[in-house]
Here is the input.
Amino acid sequence: DAKTTQPPSMDCAEGRAANLPCNHSTISGNEYVYWYRQIHSQGPQYIIHGLKNNETNEMASLIITEDRKSSTLILPHATLRDTAVYYCIVRPNSGGGADGLTFGKGTHLIIQP
Amino acid sequence: EAGVTQSPTHLIKTRGQQATLRCSPISGHTSVYWYQQALGLGLQFLLWYDEGEERNRGNFPPRFSGRQFPNYSSELNVNALELEDSALYLCASSKRVSGSGELFFGEGSRLTVL
Here is the structure.
């Protein structure tokens, strides 16, 4: 898996948009960008993924730069429950199921009231 | 729909003993993954099972082993426990033929080795 770089921590005010950056300058053409989050002492939760187009779902939006070397996860209206460690992962989509995802240290997002 | 379930929630063992952790995947999922998360460390990939076979293994010693049963549930065995095996052990499942690579995680089993 290509390596990713994320800031270790970020703060965001409740109700504001939280923008979490991720650098993946060595990403290969067949590798997708995945985002997961882990709320304290719980199992990680899938958020969103994309290849090169921007993606949006009920949880978040994913913006991938045209050169695919970086991306930003956007939580449009952060709440206190969004406080968690957010992991950016790049991996190929073989279409045959996922082998072990490589989790880095992630970004600890703290939503301030 | 039930999510990934793991048991026990907590387990306390002493050094040298064996621990067995269990995981039931989401109905229809055939792949099961095990991760270790020690205190202050990230998630470390342990094992991947699919259709009853071990498909991939992380950088862990052979005393970490497991299996997947015909109903796709799985168990992780840790033999000759060491203090540093104390961690949260997370199980995840996914569909084998999945284009998304989306893994669904359970809440984990916390193993404490004294």
